[in-house]
Amino acid sequence: MKRVLEVYPMAVTPYYLSLLDPNGQDDPLSAQCLPNIDELSKSDQSQEDPLNEEGFMPVAKLIHRYPDRVLAVLTKSCATYCRHCNRKRFWTVRNPAAVKKLIDPMVRYVRASKNIREVILSGGDPLCFDDATLDYILSSFSAVPHVEILRIGSRMPVVLPMRITKDLCRLLKRHRPLWFNTQFNHPSEITKESSRACEMLLEAGIPVSNQSVLLAGVNDTKEVMQALLRGLQKISVRPYYLFHCEPVRGCLHFRTSLLSGLNLMEELRRDCSGLALPHYVADLPGETGKMPLLALSETIQKNLKKHQDFFDFFE
To answer: Which of 83, 180, 265, 300 has the fewest Cβ atoms within 10 angstroms?
Structure first.
């Protein structure tokens, strides 16, 4: 652990820590939050920024990969550092001192880009901010006339569900239409507390979707993934995406083969309701974006050739 912490720090909320199995060496929740020596394994094909997000930042920390939406990296902080994070490169970088100094250039860029209709607040975790700061950020973007949709990506309902308060829900409700994406990766994360946090968001009129990551040893079996998807459907959280784990430096031990992922989805397709099935996707570098892996189309064949090195690493 000491060797890993010299490279990648650790943060775990007391709540999430309480869910871990103290006697389980192969505990899937421990694997997501406790350092593992395999994080120091290296490969010529692993990268700190495999999606080349840094190359699509017209202003600092604003990612513009798609024509009609942008993603704002508002903070490098999270309540819990997920060991499979695709932005591990941020963990040792300090946050900017002033939020206004970070936000203002972003808002100016969005205001000047008339094709942008959606702004995604991400990080790190934007719910690390207090309510007043979060309200300022949301108000700044929603004041742009052509911004129609706001979206928040946060794992707080899973790792710190008490962050979802009545005051926060009232705040978010004022900024509708606003969508909320979270990340449950294992059925053991669906607790009374996390279910209630999602229910509060839903009661405020905020749609809640889930974006899981396919993780070896965590959720890569039919039994576990089926329990997760059915559990999400039961609490009215839409299973939206299942991401194939990216070749991020420090995350290689979580990666499955593409074939095993496809076989898993085929099993789930036969036994799960369509409402519980996520889109199994690989996020590809640059403007290509999220590629649905189950479709066998001419478009995908072209992109497989375009990113052959990326897909070779799946196997």
So the answer is: 300
Neighbour count for residue 87 (Cβ, 10 Å): 19
Residues 6+ apart with CB under 8 A from 88: 8, 48, 248, 249, 250, 251
Instruction: Output the domain CATH number for residue 277.
Output: 3.20.20.70
Q: Quick check: helix, strand or coil at residue 289? A: strand
**Domain, as residue range, for 55:** 2-312
pLDDT, greater one: 36 or 311: 36
Nearest in space to 313 (alpha carbons), one of 84, 51, 45, 44: 45
Distance CA 43, CA 250 (A): 10
Q: What is the pLDDT of residue 312?
A: 57
Mean pLDDT, range 195-211, rounded to an integer:
98
Tokens 């995350």 sit on residue: 251
Question: What is the distance between the alpha carbons of residues 161 and 194, in angstroms, rounded to a whole number?
Answer: 5
Would you say 157 and 201 are in contact if contact means Cβ atoms under 8 Å apart?
A: yes
At residue 254's C-alpha, the angle toward residues 80 and 208, to 5°, is: 50
Q: At what angle do helices 99-112 and 131-142 cross, to 10 degrees?
A: 20
Number of domains making up the chain: 1
Residues 74, 121: Cα–Cα separation, whole Å: 7
The percentage of residues in the chain with a pLDDT greater than 70, rounded to a whole number, is 93
Number of residues that this document lists for the chain: 315
Residue bearing tokens 């742009």? 144
State the pTM of this model.
0.92
